[in-house]
Write the structure tokens for this entry.
Amino acid sequence: MAKARVLIRPKEGILDPQGKAVERALPALGFEGVEHVRVGRMVELEAEDPERLGELCEKLLANPLIEDYEIQTF
Amino acid sequence: MMWAVLQFPGSCDERDALHACSLAGGEARLVWHEERDLGGIDAVVVPGGFSYGDYLRTGAIARFSPAMEAVAEFAAAGGPVLGICNGFQVLCEAGLLPGALLLNEDLRFHCRQVDLVPENGSSGRFATESVGQTTTRALSIPVKHGEGRFWAPPEMLDEIEANGQVAYRYAPGQNPNGSARDIAGVTNERGNVLGLMPHPEHAVDPLTGSTDGLRVFEALAGSRA
């Protein structure tokens, strides 16, 4: 079994209100100078056939219309 | 006329949808998500709620259910399908409707009455022409969602508009979620599948202040054939 991580994030150009909310909260906590915050999600999994992870992402883990994904295998 | 209202684990509006279907005429029955047979069904409603807990993305898991396979075949054969709220999200995930529904722009869950303007002169065969022809008045229907911001790439939006696939827009100034071009409901290119973020099934009884939602169900019933 290969261990893998899939990082999924909103596509560039799509408004990410979660990222904006995080960004706006930071100065109040003393973290100045942080910009372009984007919130996505990370899926960890173990796969027998890592070759098929791309297909799996396209069909279920990500919605390719609105999200980009990145597969990291270990 | 026989209506089917799908029911997933986590659906919550299927009872109101059943009631609305029967008021619009005919009989209505629930179809459990594991059922694969839509034999004898004239129109399908994919109701609102939180199918499969909305895990991963809204509608992402429900689209793989046996019942949705049957709905895809039903739609491909020209059968009328209405997806409401979570049902709209499911139909988008299934590729039966264009675009996607994202978190509301202001991150808040909105529950309130909105005015919906039917798009006139479009090529959609139901809910657009049939509702548009009965009145030019906006429909007063409630929204209740946290993820209802309709989004599609600009070129896809142009195409949807050019094809007459926009069925309803939020009245000016009433867009509750930041939807692109105020779009509240779209159809597929053929016009037999409609997705709607507001809830017509919650506006069918004078008790709740508006019966405008019934017109959506009547238009769906009238679109058969």
Q: What stands out?
A: Strands of chain A lie at 2-10, 41-47, 67-73. Chain A has two helices and three strands. The interface with chain B takes residues 10, 14-15, 17-18, 21, 60-61, 63, 65-66 of chain A (CB under 8 Å).
